[in-house]
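$ ./design --mode recover --in tokens.txt
reading tokens...
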């Protein structure tokens, strides 16, 4: 009898804990983004060359590609994926991309309780590593994960993860 009671209590506790969705994990640093972007802009670097690559679960692999920016006009010097248009063609475009991603993630956080009852957001991550000398983003990793019910097949496109790397930068 004690065994049945303990199993019942344990089962009820498990069911209650599964029906409650834990708090969303958020890893976003808008303050650093704004500080580093201002530091980049203050340098007025208009001529540079950089190499980057980008990979995501939606787009696949892009690059590496080498981009030249002269007087704020960019051109692709070399690309390992020439059939694809580069995601970004300047450091300014990388900052713009991060800014849009920040805004989209912040909106997703606000809307999570109202719009996404079936697949609530589990985690949002936007990690940016900045170059200490020139303040451009050297690495950008981002992702958004959703809770999916056990044995449920999530719809295509649910969940995003990507990474952008600048491996060379020559002013």
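writing sequence...
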């Amino acid at each position: 009898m004690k065994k049945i009671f303990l199993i019942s209590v344990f089962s009820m506790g498990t069911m209650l804990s599964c029906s409650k969705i834990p708090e969303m994990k958020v890893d976003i640093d808008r303050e650093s983004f704004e500080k580093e972007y201002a530091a980049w802009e203050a340098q007025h670097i208009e001529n540079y060359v950089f190499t980057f690559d980008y990979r995501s679960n939606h787009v696949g692999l892009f690059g590496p590609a080498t981009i030249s920016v002269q007087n704020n006009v960019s051109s692709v010097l070399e690309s390992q994926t020439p059939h694809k248009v580069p995601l970004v063609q300047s450091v300014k475009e990388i900052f713009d991309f991060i800014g849009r991603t920040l805004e989209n993630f912040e909106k997703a956080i606000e809307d999570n309780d109202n719009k996404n009852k079936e697949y609530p957001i589990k985690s949002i991550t936007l990690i940016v590593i900045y170059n200490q000398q020139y303040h451009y983003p050297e690495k950008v990793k981002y992702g958004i994960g959703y809770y999916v019910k056990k044995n449920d097949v999530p719809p295509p496109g649910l969940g995003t993860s990507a990474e952008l790397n600048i491996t060379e930068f020559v002013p």
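exit 0
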